## 1
Amino acid sequence: MATDVNVPTLGESITEATVGQWLKNPGDAVALDEPIVALETDKVSVEVNSPVAGTLAEQLVKEGDTVAVGALIARIGEGGAPALTAAAPAAPATPAAVKHEPEPEAEVAGAPVNPAGAGETPRPRESDDPAPPHDAALTLSPAVRRAVLANHVDPSAIKGSGKDGRITKDDVLAAATAKTNSPAPAPAPAPAASAPAARPAPTAERREERVKISRMRQTIATRLKEAQNTAALLTTFNDVDMTAVIDARARYKDLFEKKHDIRLGFMGFFVKAVALAAKDVPSVNARIEGDEIVYHDYLDVSVAVSAPKGLVVPVVRDADRMSFAEIEKAIAAFGKKAKDGALTAEDMRGGTFTISNGGVFGSLLSTPIINPPQSAVLGMHRIEDRPVARDGQVVIRPMMYLALSYDHRLIDGREAVTFLVRIKEAIEDPTRLLIDL
């Protein structure tokens, strides 16, 4: 008897999701609680686990389909051979299919990756579509297409070993190995002096790849554009001498890690500095709601971290009441969950202020965009030795640029500058963080 698999509850206000990737194919054995499909929501990617041990009998929806909470998406049969049921019809070839046509141009490098993490390449997945004959346009899965581009092989010359003759990633790698190990062709004889020079043969093919925008990426784009259209965005800059914080970390990092079992990072200092500065400039930690300003007597810091499918902002709640160790542990836990794709909608709910650290990717300067309905975001950047004047002397100091983007409808320039100066003072003299000055 088959067991139904339904879309689980995905979080507050989330009513539907997109089928991102089937992790099991019909006929595959599945264990109890083993993930069988990944769903993409507006905020996170959620894996749906098998409610029983058995064999995946049917996939009732295809990758890319939109499904509602509670919808039936698969059936799990009892152990052994799968039930002989009609599989979901294969999706016809779409304009996303790549047509491989030779053109006389140089080889194409791989697609660039956004260093801030805001536009990572979507997670590759294998397609369930059967491969067409080699004399037709080849429909390849994203993983296979990337392997073809990376190894510069002609997919039309590869005999597929997958289902219905489709080309797999292993087929591409085997073809690339055979190409590398094959003897080099004998050089062609030099043309006669009177003959015109022959045009060199093309070295590679030019290709394009179309990938559907993920639901999360669409939501990010919508919210950022909403911020630009609604808020009066302005960015104010300052720089900060990191000498005191670097010295404090060097002096206490071993004792700190031994006592708290977590490394002492820079984010703990900046979160504490933001909490201190927000007491003097409460509008930075407020929001506009209709014709009212909502002030918060707490600080929930959204910390921007890079996830496989985009930039996400989990929330460190009540950060103003947390110790350095508690802040560092919370951020480290969110970073691990983001890397594993395990963040939940609850992890990213709310937030009154955002900190984005582009410096970990090498960014020197940027103008971050606020995360609505918040009114401000602090951008941190890389630490760089620069000459500065101290007591009439030019000295080298580890400096960092800070950028505060804010909604000018709520926050005046004077308040933004004051907020940045308070952070600068606290970072350059960390004792202020201890005595609340």
## 2
Amino acid sequence: MLTAGAMAVTGLAAGRAFAALPAAPLAASPVRPELMKRALAALQRHSGKIASRDVIGIADFSKHSSVPRFHFVDLASGQTRTLLVSHGRGSDPAHSGMLQRFSNDFGSAASSQGTYLTSDIYVGKHGRSRRLVGLDPTNSNAEPRAVVVHGAWYVGPEIVREHGKLGRSEGCFAFSETEIEQALARLGTGRMIYAEKA
């Protein structure tokens, strides 16, 4: 359940964004309450920089990469949809499927924890992708490190079936190539992504 404070952070665009997309399954399990609490605290802390506070993204990196763990939360309705997402190879050197560590360092190829602001869409080597700005000291290098949201062939249920885990990114939030447009649309410019493990 979302708190009353969370319900107050709403907007009409969220409903339109969710309604305009193909039906997606509801999350198999709700966002962990303590993770939601930290994400909402981050939203409040960075409210001056996050223009659209209707839909937020929460990456729960405490979960194995074979499990859907990126939550799209509509704060108006409380509806949550969850997709598979990769983590950085520098965060999981043994490729166990579990994120072992975060890093904000250049050349680390690791995922970074903290609060991100979604920026503009561009077309790069992974097709349509969305730039991110790190808002915390733990992910302040996101933009110069080119940590973005993009699609990747190594993310998807077929990869999980074959390998028991997803492939790894260079620290980016990589979604299935069949689901990347949903991810880009749900988290338009000016929204928040919160990534955490604990």
## 3
Amino acid sequence: MKVLLIQSSRYLANGRLDRRKSRWVLGMTLPYVAALVPKDIQVEVKDDMLDEITFREDCDLVGLCFMSHQAPRAYEIAAGFRRRGVPVVMGGFHATLAPEECQQHADALVLGEAEEAWPRLLRDFQAGRLQPRYQAEKLSDLKNLPVPRYDLLDLKRYEVWNIPSQTTRGCPHGCNFCEVTQVYGGKFRHRPVAEVVHEIQEIRRLTGSGYVYFVDDNFVANRRHAVEVAEKLIPLKLEYGCMATANVGDDPELLDLLVRSGCIHLNIGMETISPASLEAINKKQNQIKDYERQFKALRDRGLGFSVNVIFGLDGDNPGIFDATVDFLIRIKAPLVFMFILAPRPSTKVREQLLQEGRIFNYDWANYTGYKVVYHPKHMSVRQLEEGYWRANRRFYSLSSMLRRRFTLAPQSRIMLVFNLYFAWAVRRRFQPQDYYF
């Protein structure tokens, strides 16, 4: 028996399929799902963005993983294989949060976490008793997880060998634009530290990469666990990046330890400088009055960071764009990822917008994070779209780069390269994250 796992691409605004010769960032999902496949079953991984899907592939079962904006292409791939008589399984966030829709395009769904459900599905398929839906009875304890099968990928096709790993799962917060707690439950869990270290050692052996990106939604949410992991990373002499909340800047001891352990980059979910907008998305952990001090603590340690910003929240008005950019320049943010709110399936913010009749575009292909699919509360659709691009252009302008004072340090040089690329892209109304991710 052979299973083919496919990461779906997406269709661009001009109707063309997004195809590339290489990608910047390596994803973890399919290599990890491949590692959960029992040893007696063959498995192959294909990235629809890099590899042509011929629908003539030698396989007995197809597994599809995709994000919401990739759903139209995923449904097309599923239809192609099903016409051949090859059953299709869908899993991941979109399948979990929009099961009724996905069930129309698949023979079976894996809902939620895959550790127990996916191997059970494969055994049922071998026995000829495939069921329409599989979901684990309880959340994984994150013990004895397999090492992702990065050996199944051609790593030369990825520009940055930022090999993903994971130390925790879930998030202790309940932001209403985010799907994490709905997919992973409200319980925040962490892996045994010895197993994290073993995985990193195996990753380095398999890939030769000395850079790891921890995909945890909040690497430092459990401080005790984060400290234990960081201490064990020091002897490994690797470099790594991770995601964290802004309040990590209030913990100087932890910041110093992160630096000593090899952390060179933190991605911070700041989201907004508007108190009303923070309240609208229920992001209680962010305190705007503390932002400048928190980001200064990162800069003082030479710790690279990027900031995530969402525009179009219910507290936003037309002045939010310039005010946000002014703030980001003042804190000398090295890199900023700007998004327009995308109300994805089953999120609380989507339910609210649906109840208020404000969503006007239901095509998942437009839920990219830089297209407007709903009516904002305090501005027009056009004001949101134009303000978004103006904010990108201002932040990535030459004058902004000079004011943010890039140095000749290695990390600053890397950030400058990204800034120049983003500047080139946004002036052409091309979203740089399209290529980055």
